[in-house]
């Protein structure tokens, strides 16, 4: 199979038939073998009924329905697990991503050998205050933190080799940073293509302030995991040892100074009356706790089990 088109959605009933017909037109004109995977992330409208109708009309249409809204990352995770195509295309269901971009994205993966191609909505039709400015902040922070030089991490239109999506773990709000996850997994040939961005035709944007905050928190998480995710002891253990050593040396110095003054019959105070003693003691305690945090992190890393992060109520296979 040439293509798997993974489309997460939430309350996009009106746009689904038009999007489906547009995709089918592109697939037919280029003789692609394909599947369309609609992931209904807990829609409260008739989106699932529409997906069922489209599946009856077109056997290439498949679907997964969540019991409730779990988020776009979980929807992509479920879609990636089911995708069978040589190239996986992700796109939004709101008609702001153009299926006409798919053939060129496919060629960049198959003929040019890219692992991942990310779309770049150079000209946007979204709200400047609530989407464009936050997106620019996200992209700047992601570039600086990850070293992946993309202009638009958050573009929903992306293309992947099959092996890439099978070897990355998407959770939280990390769908924004899939290129970073791919780089951390060892896939270095990551490119970018300017794509058409269309104004929303139906419904309203699902973007809110909570997604803005969560996106930055997930960026910090990705940075930490890329640096120390496989070796937490290297961070916490090292900090713990350094702090414990500093505290131990400081406490020892206080004790030696006390004994030296007593030996020479010089006036001195009780060790417990010296504020530096408590600072040294606290440093040793914090150092011990950091070391234990690193040790526990190593144990958890070696014994963790993958937890089910979403519940599926129906599947169209």
Q: What is the succession of H and E elements?
A: EHEHEHEHEHEHHEHHHE
Q: Beta-sheet strand percentage?
A: 5-15%
Largest beta-sheet details: 8 strands, mixed
Taking strands numbered 1, 2, ... along the chain, how are they ordered across the largest sheet?
7-5-6-4-1-2-3-8
The total beta strand count reads 8
> What is the 3D form?
elongated
Rounded radius of gyration (Å): 27 Å
SS content category: alpha/beta
Count of DSSP H/I helices:
10
The stretches of 5 or more residues where confidence is low (pLDDT under 50) are none
Distance between the termini: 15 Å
Mean pLDDT: 85
Helix content: 40-55%
Features:
10 helices, 317 residues, eight-stranded mixed beta sheet, 14% strand, alpha/beta
Explain how this protein is built:
With 317 residues, the chain is an alpha/beta fold. 50% of the residues lie in helices and 14% in strands. The chain is built from 10 helices and 8 strands. It has helices at 16-29, 47-57, 72-82, 102-110, 128-146, 162-165, 178-185, 209-228, 232-263, 275-303, and strands spanning 3-9, 34-40, 61-66, 87-90, 116-120, 158-161, 190-194, 312-316. It has an 8-stranded mixed sheet, sandwiched between helices. Strand 1, helix 1 (16-29) and strand 2 form a beta-alpha-beta unit. Helix 5 (128-146) runs parallel beside helix 8 and helix 9 (232-263) runs antiparallel to helix 10. The longest helix is centred in the C-terminal third of the chain and has 32 residues, at 232-263. The relative contact order is 0.13. The mean pLDDT is 85.
């Amino acid at each position: 199979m040439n293509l798997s088109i993974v489309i997460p959605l939430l309350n996009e009933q009106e746009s689904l038939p038009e999007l489906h017909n547009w995709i089918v037109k592109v697939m037919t004109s280029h003789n692609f073998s394909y599947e369309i995977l609609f992931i209904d992330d807990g829609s409260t409208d008739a989106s699932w009924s529409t997906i069922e109708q489209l599946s009856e009309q077109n056997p290439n249409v498949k679907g997964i329905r969540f019991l409730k809204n779990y988020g776009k990352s979980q929807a992509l995770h479920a879609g990636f697990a089911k995708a069978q195509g040589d190239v996986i295309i992700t796109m939004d269901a709101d008609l702001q991503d153009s299926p006409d971009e798919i053939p060129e994205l496919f060629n960049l993966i198959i003929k040019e050998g890219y692992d991942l191609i990310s779309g770049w909505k150079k000209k946007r039709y979204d709200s400047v205050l609530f989407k464009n400015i936050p997106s620019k902040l996200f992209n700047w922070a992601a570039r600086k933190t990850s070293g992946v030089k993309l202009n638009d991490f958050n573009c929903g239109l992306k293309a992947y080799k099959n092996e890439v999506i099978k070897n990355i773990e998407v959770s939280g709000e990390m769908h924004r940073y899939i290129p970073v996850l791919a780089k951390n997994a060892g896939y270095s040939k990551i490119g970018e293509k300017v794509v058409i961005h269309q104004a929303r035709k139906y419904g309203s944007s699902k973007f809110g302030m909570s997604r803005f905050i969560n996106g930055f928190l997930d960026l910090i998480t990705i940075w930490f995991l890329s640096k120390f995710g496989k070796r937490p002891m290297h961070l916490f253990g090292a900090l713990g040892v350094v702090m414990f050593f500093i505290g131990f040396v400081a406490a020892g110095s206080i004790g030696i100074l006390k004994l030296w003054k007593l030996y020479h019959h010089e006036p001195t105070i009780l060790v417990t009356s010296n504020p530096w003693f408590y600072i040294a003691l606290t440093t040793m305690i914090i150092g011990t706790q950091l070391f234990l945090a690193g040790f526990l992190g190593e144990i958890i890393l070696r014994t963790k089990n993958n937890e089910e992060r979403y519940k599926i109520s129906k599947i169209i296979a």
